[in-house]
Structures are given as C-alpha cells and as structure tokens.
C-alpha cells in the first residue's frame, strides 16, 4: 500500500491552459466568445452594445446551458464593458482569472503588409497597429481600445492580434496594386488590402473539406455576404484576389456601403453639391448600398417588399445581384479553374433568393443551383448544386470567432493536443 502524499504536497496535475477568449471590439460595442480549445467548443458568448450611452446593454449567453442574461445601464467605456463581461463569465465559473485561460485573441481589422499571420501583441506591435489608423480610421482605434483594456485586466496573459487583412497578403502585386503613381501610393500605403480575411480563410478551407479534398487542391470563390460584403478568389488555399481594397468600401454592393464607384463621383459631389470630404465619406459608407437604393438594408425586408410589388426594392435587389455576378465571372477568369462557389455570412447563409439569383444564367460556367437543396435551412455546411453541375455551389456558415481562437491557440500552445468536434 502506498503512503499518502504529505499534506503540503499537491497530488493534482498542473492545469494546462486550454481556453481562449476572443474579443471583437467595435467603436461602441464588444463581442466576445470563450472557447475550450481541447474540443473547440464554446463555453459562453456575449455582446455589449451602445458603450458610452445611457442605454448600454449586455447580453450574455452561457452556451453550456442556461438562458441568456441581460443587463442594462450606462457602461462609460470599453474598460467598463469588458469588466461587466468578465463578471458574467465569473458567474458561470469561467472567470478571466482562471489558470485555464491560455490567451486572449483580438480581431484587428487592418494589419497592413507587415502582419501576415497572428501576432503576439507587444508594445511595438501596438504602435504599428496605431500607425495604420489613417487607413482604417473606423476600425483600428476601437480594436486598440479593446487590446489595451484586456491587457489591463490580464497583463500576465498573451494577447494575440488576428488581422482581417492577413489572409489577403498572398495576393500578387498585379492584383494588389492600384494604377496610380507608385511613389504616392507607397508614401501613403495605398494598395488593395482586403478584409473579412478570417472568414474567407475559414470558409475556403471548410469548402475544400466539404468536397473531400485538401485546400491546396481546390479553387474557390468565396462570397461573404452580410451587411458588409466581400468576394475572394482562393487558389489552392491562398487568396489571389479580393473585392475590398484600401478600405472596406470597395467591391460589392453592401448594406450601407456603395461598393465600386467611379472615383470622380467624389470630385463631382465636392464641386457641384458643395459636399465636404467628411460628408462624402458618410454618404458612401453609411447612406449608400441597399439602404441608399431603397431605404432598407435588411434583405428579408427587401424581399418582402419585392413580393408586394415594390419596384424600388426590386431595383435595389437587381443592382446587388448584378454586382455579384460580375465578381463571380471576373474571379472565374482570374482562377482559370473553379471548383466551388461558397456563400457565407448573414445574407449568404440565409437568403435562398440571393443565392438562386446570383447563380442564375451562369450555366455556361458550370454553375447551377438545385431549388430543393437551396430551400433547405441548416446551420451545417452543405452543397446546393445538382449532381451534374461541373462546379459545386455551397453554403458554408462562417465562424470568424473559431478561426481567431484556432489561430491564437496555435500560436501560444503549438504542441497542445486538440480534438475536432
């Protein structure tokens, strides 16, 4: 019989940190998810919105069971918002002081050309993210605020930046460069960067998995269609073209953004309408796209209006679809061979009419949609093309938080054992 261990010695095995907290800090909101990376399961998630207003609101969902909890009342800043979120996690036994927490992963929108992979945040890294504020004035400041707040809450913990732009840094110069004076472009970092990179990376990889192939063997056109929308051409797992550019304004028609537009429109509005640069910025980013065309940026409402005979809504939908078709055709030409077109994000995953209309008429490209399969609602990756179609059409729910958690954990715990769920 073995002797019991002395009282002063612990018989418990040391805890291997295996949780990752993912933070997505906006200008007036924070989204968060806590994941167990042993099986990639979610332990809790939440959203704090209207930060800085009297009517701040936090909705916390314990994903291991239990009803969502809500609290309201002023949260003056991101520090207060994250502390409130930490309190909710603690109430679930998932406090941020837990030794099981391995790292905090932050979504950072713009990483420029320097950051091509997830990066542990140091003072120098944070300074570089700050230097990129002029090319991402709506996003990077909020991301920086979230990072600083998280650092204050857990200064001992690795903080990792996962960049929206990183996946697109594999684009060739012919795709990334604008045809303007090179010295001017280089002096002011003007080039195509692309965004939604974590989504495009995740969805292109999942599409290959759906086809039973390795990512390096598959060419995919990914259509990330939410309130913000972007397309990418992914050849063998590497992005070779994407629709968003220096900022998230370029490309597809979006909820409130114009997408592609003749740059001279801005000069015309300044000269003829007397609009300032800030007014034009607001017009193109917040009062254009679907909301500018018909007053609504919710695709469900637009479809309802179309069914009631609303011609303005129908025109907005047609413009939206026309732009989508242009990009599908252009990216088919860029790739040379297309194995799949994948729809993702809120509209892409949930709007069967958008998917049907975007593919209609592209039969010569080998594309087709099966009406029955397209009508099915599911949270799982699935094919909606008929068996005879030469090119697969897929619906692949995106999971940007899981992608950020995966990249974060792989960086801080590269030898950890994982079990896919």
Q: Could you walk me through the main structural features you see in this protein, from its secondary elements to its overall organization?
A:
The protein has 421 residues and is an alpha/beta fold. The radius of gyration is 23 Å and the shape is globular. The protein has 15 helices and 14 strands. The strands form 2 sheets. The protein has an 8-stranded mixed β-sheet with strand order 5-4-3-2-1-6-8-7, with helices on both faces. The protein has a 6-stranded mixed β-sheet with strand order 11-10-9-12-14-13, with helices on both faces. Helix content is 36%, strand content 19%. Mean pLDDT is 92; it is low at 1-11. The chain has helices at 78-91, 123-131, 140-153, 173-176, 182-187, 197-210, 264-272, 277-286, 289-294, 299-307, 311-335, 345-350, 352-359, 371-375, 400-412, and strands at 19-25, 29-36, 41-49, 57-61, 69-72, 101-108, 119-120, 159-163, 219-225, 229-235, 238-242, 340-344, 382-383, 392-395.
Secondary structure layout plus pairing:
Blueprint (H helix, E strand, L loop, with lengths): L18 E7 L3 E8 L4 E9 L7 E5 L7 E4 L5 H14 L9 E8 L10 E2 L2 H9 L8 H14 L5 E5 L9 H4 L5 H6 L9 H14 L8 E7 L3 E7 L2 E5 L21 H9 L4 H10 L2 H6 L4 H9 L3 H25 L4 E5 H6 L1 H8 L11 H5 L6 E2 L8 E4 L4 H13 L9
Q: What's the mean pLDDT score?
A: 92
- Which strand order do you get reading across the main beta sheet? 5-4-3-2-1-6-8-7
Order of helices and strands: EEEEEHEEHHEHHHEEEHHHHHEHHHEEH
What portion of residues belong to β-strands? Answer: 15-25%
Shape: globular
Distance between the termini: 41 Å
Rounded to the nearest angstrom, the radius of gyration is: 23 Å
Number of strands: 14
Summarize the main sheet.
Answer: 8 strands, mixed
- What structural category do the secondary elements indicate? alpha/beta
Helix content: 25-40%
**What is the overall number of helices?**
15
Parts with pLDDT < 50 across at least 5 consecutive residues: 1-11
